[in-house]
Amino acid sequence: MKFLLSCISTNHSTLKKHWSDTGQDTACPLTVLGSLQKPKEDLGGQLCLIDDQAGVLNTMPLPMAAGLAPSEHGLFVTTFSAIHEADLALQTLHQDVITSPLFNALHSISRTRAGYLVASTGLDLVIELNANGDILWSWWATDHGFTHTPTGEYRQLDKQADHRAMKYGTLQQTTHVNSVAELPDGRVLATLFHQGSVIAIDRDTGNWQTLLEGLDHPHSIRVLDEEHFTVADTVNGHALLARFNATSTRAQVEETIDATTNWLQDASYNGAHDAWLLVDGKQSQIQIRGGRSGKQMQAQIGVDPEWRLYEAYALS
Predict the structure, then answer these.
(1) What backbone phi and psi angles, to 5 degrees, belong to 300?
(2) What does the alpha-carbon distance between residue 220 and residue 215 come to, in Å, rounded to a whole number?
(3) How far apart are CA 193 and CA 68, in angstroms?
(4) Is residue 173 predicted with pLDDT exceeding 60?
(5) For 253-290, what is each residue's pLDDT tens digit?
(6) Which residues contact 216 (CB under 8 A, 6 or more apart)?
(7) What average pLDDT does the segment 126-148 reach?
(8) What are the residues whose beta carbons fall under 8 Å from the beta carbon of 190, sequence distance 6 or more?
(9) Nearest residue to 47 (alpha-carbon basis) of 61, 30, 36
Protein backbone atom coordinates (compact mmCIF):
# COMPACT_ATOMS: atom_id res chain seq x y z
CA MET A 1 0.00 0.00 0.00
CA LYS A 2 1.16 3.52 -0.79
CA PHE A 3 0.03 6.42 1.34
CA LEU A 4 0.74 10.07 2.02
CA LEU A 5 1.68 11.14 5.53
CA SER A 6 1.63 14.61 7.04
CA CYS A 7 4.12 15.62 9.73
CA ILE A 8 3.00 18.62 11.75
CA SER A 9 6.61 19.00 12.92
CA THR A 10 10.02 17.68 11.96
CA ASN A 11 11.59 19.05 15.15
CA HIS A 12 9.88 16.91 17.75
CA SER A 13 12.68 17.46 20.27
CA THR A 14 11.93 21.21 20.17
CA LEU A 15 8.35 20.48 21.19
CA LYS A 16 9.50 18.20 23.98
CA LYS A 17 11.77 20.96 25.31
CA HIS A 18 8.85 23.42 25.20
CA TRP A 19 6.66 21.06 27.22
CA SER A 20 9.49 20.47 29.71
CA ASP A 21 10.11 24.22 30.09
CA THR A 22 6.40 24.82 30.71
CA GLY A 23 6.11 21.97 33.20
CA GLN A 24 4.24 19.62 30.89
CA ASP A 25 4.41 15.83 30.68
CA THR A 26 6.23 14.70 27.54
CA ALA A 27 5.19 11.03 27.58
CA CYS A 28 3.00 11.70 24.55
CA PRO A 29 3.65 13.81 21.45
CA LEU A 30 1.10 16.22 22.82
CA THR A 31 0.34 16.97 26.44
CA VAL A 32 -2.94 15.64 27.73
CA LEU A 33 -4.50 19.06 27.99
CA GLY A 34 -1.94 21.26 26.27
CA SER A 35 -0.41 24.53 27.35
CA LEU A 36 -1.41 28.17 27.47
CA GLN A 37 1.03 29.17 24.74
CA LYS A 38 2.54 27.77 21.58
CA PRO A 39 6.32 27.37 21.14
CA LYS A 40 8.02 30.22 19.30
CA GLU A 41 10.70 28.11 17.61
CA ASP A 42 10.53 26.81 14.04
CA LEU A 43 8.82 23.41 14.22
CA GLY A 44 9.32 22.42 10.59
CA GLY A 45 6.87 20.02 8.97
CA GLN A 46 6.54 18.01 5.78
CA LEU A 47 4.57 15.65 3.57
CA CYS A 48 5.85 12.13 2.89
CA LEU A 49 5.04 9.54 0.25
CA ILE A 50 5.48 6.07 1.73
CA ASP A 51 5.24 2.53 0.42
CA ASP A 52 4.70 -0.16 3.02
CA GLN A 53 7.30 -2.34 1.29
CA ALA A 54 9.85 0.19 0.06
CA GLY A 55 9.61 2.81 2.84
CA VAL A 56 9.81 6.57 2.27
CA LEU A 57 9.69 7.36 -1.46
CA ASN A 58 9.62 11.15 -1.37
CA THR A 59 9.26 14.10 1.00
CA MET A 60 8.15 17.69 0.57
CA PRO A 61 8.86 20.39 3.19
CA LEU A 62 5.68 22.09 4.40
CA PRO A 63 5.57 23.77 7.82
CA MET A 64 2.94 22.33 10.18
CA ALA A 65 1.34 20.04 7.58
CA ALA A 66 -1.78 18.48 9.10
CA GLY A 67 -5.11 17.54 7.49
CA LEU A 68 -5.34 15.82 4.10
CA ALA A 69 -8.25 15.58 1.62
CA PRO A 70 -8.51 14.81 -2.11
CA SER A 71 -8.69 17.84 -4.40
CA GLU A 72 -9.24 18.35 -8.13
CA HIS A 73 -5.52 18.26 -8.89
CA GLY A 74 -4.24 16.03 -6.10
CA LEU A 75 -4.45 16.69 -2.39
CA PHE A 76 -5.42 19.61 -0.17
CA VAL A 77 -3.20 20.00 2.89
CA THR A 78 -3.94 22.24 5.86
CA THR A 79 -1.27 24.15 7.73
CA PHE A 80 -1.56 26.69 10.53
CA SER A 81 -3.31 29.40 8.52
CA ALA A 82 -3.82 28.19 4.95
CA ILE A 83 -4.73 25.31 2.67
CA HIS A 84 -2.19 24.21 0.06
CA GLU A 85 -2.44 21.77 -2.84
CA ALA A 86 0.12 19.08 -3.72
CA ASP A 87 0.20 16.44 -6.42
CA LEU A 88 0.07 12.84 -5.24
CA ALA A 89 3.72 12.18 -6.16
CA LEU A 90 4.85 15.21 -4.12
CA GLN A 91 6.53 16.84 -7.09
CA THR A 92 4.68 20.16 -7.05
CA LEU A 93 3.12 22.32 -4.37
CA HIS A 94 0.73 25.25 -4.82
CA GLN A 95 0.80 27.32 -1.66
CA ASP A 96 -2.02 29.32 -0.08
CA VAL A 97 -4.66 28.19 -2.55
CA ILE A 98 -7.28 28.92 0.14
CA THR A 99 -6.87 31.23 3.09
CA SER A 100 -9.17 33.19 5.38
CA PRO A 101 -8.95 35.54 8.38
CA LEU A 102 -10.81 32.76 10.25
CA PHE A 103 -8.06 30.20 9.73
CA ASN A 104 -6.13 29.48 12.92
CA ALA A 105 -4.29 26.24 13.75
CA LEU A 106 -6.08 24.31 11.03
CA HIS A 107 -6.34 20.59 11.70
CA SER A 108 -8.53 18.26 9.65
CA ILE A 109 -10.10 18.84 6.24
CA SER A 110 -12.74 16.58 4.64
CA ARG A 111 -14.94 16.53 1.56
CA THR A 112 -18.65 17.39 1.66
CA ARG A 113 -21.31 17.43 -1.03
CA ALA A 114 -20.87 21.20 -1.41
CA GLY A 115 -17.16 21.61 -0.71
CA TYR A 116 -14.89 21.02 2.27
CA LEU A 117 -15.16 21.06 6.05
CA VAL A 118 -12.20 22.47 7.97
CA ALA A 119 -11.49 22.46 11.71
CA SER A 120 -10.13 25.90 12.61
CA THR A 121 -9.01 24.49 15.91
CA GLY A 122 -7.47 27.60 17.44
CA LEU A 123 -10.84 29.37 17.25
CA ASP A 124 -13.07 26.42 18.29
CA LEU A 125 -14.61 26.86 14.85
CA VAL A 126 -15.88 24.60 12.07
CA ILE A 127 -16.02 26.06 8.55
CA GLU A 128 -17.46 24.68 5.33
CA LEU A 129 -16.06 26.31 2.20
CA ASN A 130 -15.82 25.66 -1.50
CA ALA A 131 -12.66 25.24 -3.58
CA ASN A 132 -12.60 29.01 -4.21
CA GLY A 133 -12.49 29.72 -0.48
CA ASP A 134 -16.05 31.03 -0.17
CA ILE A 135 -17.46 30.25 3.28
CA LEU A 136 -20.69 28.25 2.94
CA TRP A 137 -21.41 27.50 6.61
CA SER A 138 -19.79 27.92 9.99
CA TRP A 139 -20.25 26.81 13.59
CA TRP A 140 -18.60 28.52 16.55
CA ALA A 141 -18.42 26.30 19.62
CA THR A 142 -18.48 29.39 21.83
CA ASP A 143 -21.96 30.22 20.47
CA HIS A 144 -23.32 26.79 21.31
CA GLY A 145 -22.61 26.18 24.96
CA PHE A 146 -18.83 25.76 24.94
CA THR A 147 -18.01 29.09 26.53
CA HIS A 148 -15.26 28.27 29.04
CA THR A 149 -11.74 26.87 28.69
CA PRO A 150 -10.51 23.87 30.73
CA THR A 151 -9.02 26.34 33.24
CA GLY A 152 -12.42 28.02 33.72
CA GLU A 153 -11.75 31.15 31.69
CA TYR A 154 -14.62 32.62 29.64
CA ARG A 155 -13.68 32.81 25.96
CA GLN A 156 -14.86 35.66 23.78
CA LEU A 157 -13.58 35.99 20.20
CA ASP A 158 -13.66 38.84 17.70
CA LYS A 159 -15.23 37.20 14.64
CA GLN A 160 -14.21 40.13 12.41
CA ALA A 161 -10.52 40.01 13.29
CA ASP A 162 -7.76 38.41 11.23
CA HIS A 163 -6.67 35.44 13.33
CA ARG A 164 -4.10 33.96 10.94
CA ALA A 165 -1.06 35.29 12.82
CA MET A 166 -2.44 34.76 16.32
CA LYS A 167 -1.29 31.84 18.49
CA TYR A 168 -3.77 30.45 20.99
CA GLY A 169 -2.54 27.70 23.31
CA THR A 170 -4.64 24.57 23.65
CA LEU A 171 -5.75 25.60 27.14
CA GLN A 172 -7.09 28.88 25.71
CA GLN A 173 -9.59 26.91 23.64
CA THR A 174 -12.93 25.62 24.89
CA THR A 175 -13.13 22.43 22.78
CA HIS A 176 -9.98 22.12 20.62
CA VAL A 177 -12.28 20.75 17.91
CA ASN A 178 -9.80 18.96 15.67
CA SER A 179 -11.63 16.82 13.09
CA VAL A 180 -14.92 17.18 11.23
CA ALA A 181 -16.85 15.17 8.64
CA GLU A 182 -20.25 15.30 6.98
CA LEU A 183 -22.83 12.59 7.61
CA PRO A 184 -25.03 11.36 4.73
CA ASP A 185 -28.02 13.13 6.32
CA GLY A 186 -26.16 16.47 6.25
CA ARG A 187 -25.25 16.71 9.92
CA VAL A 188 -21.63 17.41 10.80
CA LEU A 189 -19.60 15.13 13.05
CA ALA A 190 -16.88 16.72 15.18
CA THR A 191 -14.35 15.47 17.71
CA LEU A 192 -14.04 17.63 20.82
CA PHE A 193 -10.58 17.09 22.32
CA HIS A 194 -11.23 18.62 25.74
CA GLN A 195 -14.69 17.05 26.19
CA GLY A 196 -13.60 13.59 25.03
CA SER A 197 -16.60 13.24 22.76
CA VAL A 198 -17.93 12.95 19.24
CA ILE A 199 -20.89 15.23 18.53
CA ALA A 200 -23.30 15.58 15.61
CA ILE A 201 -24.19 19.18 14.68
CA ASP A 202 -27.43 20.18 12.99
CA ARG A 203 -26.57 22.56 10.15
CA ASP A 204 -29.77 24.63 10.34
CA THR A 205 -29.87 25.31 14.08
CA GLY A 206 -26.30 24.68 15.23
CA ASN A 207 -27.71 22.43 17.94
CA TRP A 208 -25.67 19.35 18.72
CA GLN A 209 -25.98 15.97 20.36
CA THR A 210 -23.34 13.64 21.72
CA LEU A 211 -22.90 10.37 19.80
CA LEU A 212 -19.87 9.04 21.70
CA GLU A 213 -18.39 10.16 25.02
CA GLY A 214 -15.81 8.97 27.50
CA LEU A 215 -13.02 9.10 24.92
CA ASP A 216 -9.57 10.32 25.90
CA HIS A 217 -8.85 13.38 23.73
CA PRO A 218 -10.13 12.04 20.38
CA HIS A 219 -9.00 12.83 16.84
CA SER A 220 -9.58 11.70 13.29
CA ILE A 221 -13.32 11.38 12.64
CA ARG A 222 -14.17 9.79 9.28
CA VAL A 223 -17.48 8.68 7.82
CA LEU A 224 -17.37 5.28 6.11
CA ASP A 225 -20.95 4.87 4.90
CA GLU A 226 -24.53 5.68 5.87
CA GLU A 227 -24.23 3.78 9.15
CA HIS A 228 -20.57 3.81 10.22
CA PHE A 229 -17.78 6.18 11.19
CA THR A 230 -14.30 5.72 12.65
CA VAL A 231 -12.48 7.76 15.28
CA ALA A 232 -9.18 7.64 17.18
CA ASP A 233 -9.55 7.34 20.96
CA THR A 234 -6.15 8.96 21.20
CA VAL A 235 -4.68 8.47 24.68
CA ASN A 236 -6.34 5.06 25.09
CA GLY A 237 -4.64 4.05 21.82
CA HIS A 238 -7.80 2.61 20.28
CA ALA A 239 -9.19 2.89 16.78
CA LEU A 240 -12.99 2.68 16.98
CA LEU A 241 -15.51 1.64 14.36
CA ALA A 242 -18.94 2.92 15.43
CA ARG A 243 -22.45 2.46 14.06
CA PHE A 244 -25.21 5.04 14.07
CA ASN A 245 -28.44 5.95 12.27
CA ALA A 246 -30.43 9.12 11.70
CA THR A 247 -32.91 8.40 14.50
CA SER A 248 -30.50 7.23 17.20
CA THR A 249 -29.16 9.59 19.82
CA ARG A 250 -26.04 7.51 20.44
CA ALA A 251 -23.52 5.58 18.39
CA GLN A 252 -22.50 2.02 19.23
CA VAL A 253 -18.88 0.87 19.01
CA GLU A 254 -18.68 -2.31 16.91
CA GLU A 255 -14.90 -2.73 16.65
CA THR A 256 -12.04 -1.65 18.90
CA ILE A 257 -8.50 -1.99 17.55
CA ASP A 258 -5.72 -1.67 20.12
CA ALA A 259 -2.76 0.13 18.52
CA THR A 260 -0.59 -0.46 21.64
CA THR A 261 0.25 3.20 22.10
CA ASN A 262 -0.86 6.00 24.39
CA TRP A 263 -1.07 8.50 21.55
CA LEU A 264 -2.96 7.28 18.48
CA GLN A 265 -2.90 10.45 16.39
CA ASP A 266 -4.84 9.11 13.39
CA ALA A 267 -6.89 6.02 12.56
CA SER A 268 -8.68 5.31 9.29
CA TYR A 269 -10.20 2.27 7.64
CA ASN A 270 -9.80 1.95 3.87
CA GLY A 271 -12.41 -0.27 2.24
CA ALA A 272 -10.54 -0.64 -1.05
CA HIS A 273 -7.57 -2.16 0.79
CA ASP A 274 -9.70 -3.69 3.59
CA ALA A 275 -7.14 -2.30 6.00
CA TRP A 276 -6.62 0.20 8.81
CA LEU A 277 -3.94 2.89 8.76
CA LEU A 278 -2.95 3.66 12.35
CA VAL A 279 -0.62 6.58 13.03
CA ASP A 280 1.27 6.14 16.30
CA GLY A 281 2.33 9.60 17.37
CA LYS A 282 4.37 8.45 20.35
CA GLN A 283 6.53 5.88 18.63
CA SER A 284 6.67 7.61 15.21
CA GLN A 285 5.37 4.63 13.32
CA ILE A 286 2.48 3.62 11.10
CA GLN A 287 0.69 0.31 11.42
CA ILE A 288 -1.33 -1.34 8.65
CA ARG A 289 -3.88 -3.78 10.03
CA GLY A 290 -6.00 -6.03 7.80
CA GLY A 291 -9.79 -6.47 8.04
CA ARG A 292 -12.43 -4.40 9.81
CA SER A 293 -11.44 -6.00 13.10
CA GLY A 294 -7.81 -5.00 12.48
CA LYS A 295 -6.52 -8.32 13.81
CA GLN A 296 -3.99 -9.00 11.05
CA MET A 297 -0.80 -6.93 11.31
CA GLN A 298 0.30 -6.37 7.71
CA ALA A 299 3.09 -3.85 8.21
CA GLN A 300 4.80 -1.64 10.78
CA ILE A 301 6.68 1.29 9.31
CA GLY A 302 8.99 3.27 11.55
CA VAL A 303 10.13 6.77 10.62
CA ASP A 304 12.47 9.42 12.05
CA PRO A 305 11.50 10.09 15.72
CA GLU A 306 11.97 13.81 15.01
CA TRP A 307 8.86 13.59 12.82
CA ARG A 308 5.71 14.34 14.75
CA LEU A 309 3.16 12.47 12.67
CA TYR A 310 -0.32 13.76 12.04
CA GLU A 311 -2.45 12.10 9.33
CA ALA A 312 -2.21 9.34 6.70
CA TYR A 313 -4.06 9.19 3.38
CA ALA A 314 -4.15 5.88 1.48
CA LEU A 315 -3.65 5.98 -2.27
CA SER A 316 -5.74 3.68 -4.45
Answers:
(1) -130, 120
(2) 12
(3) 19
(4) yes
(5) 999 999 999 999 999 999 999 999 999 998 999 999 99
(6) 196, 233, 234, 235, 236
(7) 97
(8) 119, 126, 177, 179, 180, 198, 199, 201, 208, 221
(9) 61
